[in-house]
Write a sequence for this structure.
């Protein structure tokens, strides 16, 4: 263990100069990028760290809330994992779109809230203008937008993972931070996710840290409302099928540990977990290999992975794959969440 720790510390030291370069370029990008304004309100949902904060479920929860206000929302996202750099408009659930074309997160958002539009492509400001006439939104939601300087927003929501809030405190690539934690002072709202994965004492310390950085009381959430769906996410999966069977899990998201924790909290015991990197590209052969290794047992996967698996899987795989869906549950701050969002929507 000492040898491993020594190697990690050495690696951090070697990467530290690159972290300084990353930090310098990020600050220069912010300073010299001209901010542009869209003629509708913009709410950004982002984070301080690289991946794994539970941002996508928060985006979906936000879209649901906006829909309940009888307003039309459009998400502006880079569309990670897409083969094409051409902008693509996903609407009405985009159920016929290939994940390699639309992107797994983009499609998950589009299918979770079919009433919302999703525009995937790197030039988010240009894409908003390009498709504005055909979608006429009341509000734009900027996905992963806390470090996106080009678009002015009315509200910045920042997600912080309680289980790993700031990593080792170092900037990418020596650590996982995109910016130092004092950048939270720019946030209009900070949401602590995965609050059930730490002790109450640790949570209180994190709340105090965030308040010191941002000057705002954070909203505290965990994941709940566990539901098992079929691979197409439109019907309930009969969990009684798990009785007496081996169950495995597969996840290709930023925080696989959180997914495993959610499965355990749902009351299902898993024999083994296959944890892949975020946005991992895979094909039917890989899924078939997993089923061969597990003797054709049942598989639980994430909603984001289901978007990819459901596109190529055969009928047998679909029948034996369950998708665990979760929603953010507000432990504190639900009223603050709603009031803050409504305030940013007033001039829509």
């Amino acid at each position: 263990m000492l040898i491993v720790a020594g190697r990690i510390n050495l690696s951090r030291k070697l990467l530290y100069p690159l972290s300084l370069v990353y930090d310098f370029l990020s600050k220069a990008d912010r300073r010299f990028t001209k901010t542009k304004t869209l003629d509708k309100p913009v709410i950004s949902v982002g984070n301080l760290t690289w991946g794994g904060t539970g941002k996508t479920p928060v985006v979906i929860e936000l879209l649901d809330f906006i829909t309940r206000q009888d307003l039309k929302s459009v998400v502006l996202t880079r569309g990670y994992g897409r083969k094409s750099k051409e902008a693509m408009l996903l609407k009405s659930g985009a159920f016929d779109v290939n994940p390699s074309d639309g992107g797994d997160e983009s499609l998950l958002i589009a299918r979770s809230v079919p009433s919302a539009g999703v525009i995937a492509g790197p030039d988010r400001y240009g894409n908003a203008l390009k498709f504005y006439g055909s979608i006429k939104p009341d509000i734009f939601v900027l996905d992963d937008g806390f470090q996106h300087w080009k678009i002015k927003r009315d509200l910045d929501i920042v997600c912080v993972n309680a289980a790993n809030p700031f990593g080792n405190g170092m900037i990418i690539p020596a650590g996982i931070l995109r910016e130092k934690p004092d950048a939270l002072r720019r946030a209009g709202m900070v949401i602590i996710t995965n609050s059930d994965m730490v002790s109450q004492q640790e949570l209180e310390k994190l709340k105090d840290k965030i308040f010191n950085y941002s000057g705002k009381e954070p909203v505290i959430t965990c994941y709940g409302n566990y539901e098992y769906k079929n691979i197409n996410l439109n019907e309930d999966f009969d969990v009684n099928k798990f009785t007496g069977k081996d169950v495995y899990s597969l996840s290709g998201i930023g925080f696989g540990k959180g997914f495993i924790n959610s499965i355990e909290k749902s009351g299902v015991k898993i024999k083994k977990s296959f944890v892949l990197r975020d946005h991992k590209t895979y094909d039917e052969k890989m899924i078939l290999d997993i089923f061969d290794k597990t003797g054709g047992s049942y598989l639980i996967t994430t909603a984001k992975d289901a978007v990819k698996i459901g596109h190529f899987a055969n009928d047998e795989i679909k029948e034996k794959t369950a998708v665990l869906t979760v929603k953010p549950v507000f432990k504190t701050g639900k009223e603050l969440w709603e009031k803050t969002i409504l305030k940013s929507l007033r001039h829509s």
Remarks:
- The two ends are 56 Å apart (CA to CA).
- The longest helix spans residues 2-32.
- Confidence is low (pLDDT under 50) at residues 1-6.
- Residues 230 and 322 are 5 Å apart (CA to CA).
